[in-house]
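Our working data are protein records whose layout never changes between entries. An example says more than a description, so a record of this kind follows.
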Amino acid sequence: MAGEGGAVAPSTGGGGGGAAYSPHVEQPTKSKRRPHRRKKRRRAGPVLSSFNVTRTRLFLYGRPARVRFRIDSRSRTVNVRLYLRRARGGPAVSTLRLGARRTHVKQSFFLTGRETGVLPQGRYVLRIAARDRRGRRLRRGAAASSAAELGFYHHRFPLVGPFSYGGAGSRFGAGRRGHIHQGQDLAAAEGTPLVAPRGGVIKTVSYQAGGAGHYAVLDGDGERRDYVFMHMRTGSVVVREGQHIRTGQRIGEVGATGEASGPHLHFEVWLGPWFDGGHPVDPLPLLKVWDGWS
């Protein structure tokens, strides 16, 4: 008889093949994807490609240290600064503003230790910093260091080579025939180089057969001291009167000219002018301090 309206479930009995009908078919589900996060792009600021200093010891009134660096950047120039801090830490002792420097080329600066007043003696760390026109700071490249260590000192030892302070007879105040010893004797091999302990002006270059032999007197820059070198080897003196020399510049060589029992440097330090209102002082304490860093 006629059925009533509506769909009729198909028979599950025998008959043709095919999947059986099920009123509860699970529908495929969509996989959940994590939200995509964009990686933050690093700001393209200036990059330090190289940085070095030619000298690890710097002397007041001596040869300057050459600071060399290269900075790469999209900007044509960057503003560069150098900071000197004590090696043991603390705030910057000196800030050197180098101003706008071109990028992609090697740059250099000559450091004297007198740019912002005379630096105190000691060990320092020199650091470089820079910013481009947009204020982005300098980043260190993979193969570059942004710091260098150096020492700064006001005097250096006057001998370059092995030496001996000698015994009691070599000291200031030791007895001499008709006078007392006014300096310190430093025994060394003949030909050992002698250098200026301080930059200054050569006041005297002369010869005294019965005493000092070949000698020279140096008036130190920025202080009330004269330095005297005696018994230098004949033909070794390379300075002249009135010449201005640097700390560490060669003066002559150890010899045994004049009244000397063997090769040595007779070294004197005078407060005030040599034999013109000044007076000699014991050089030994100064020499031992200078020897510590020279």
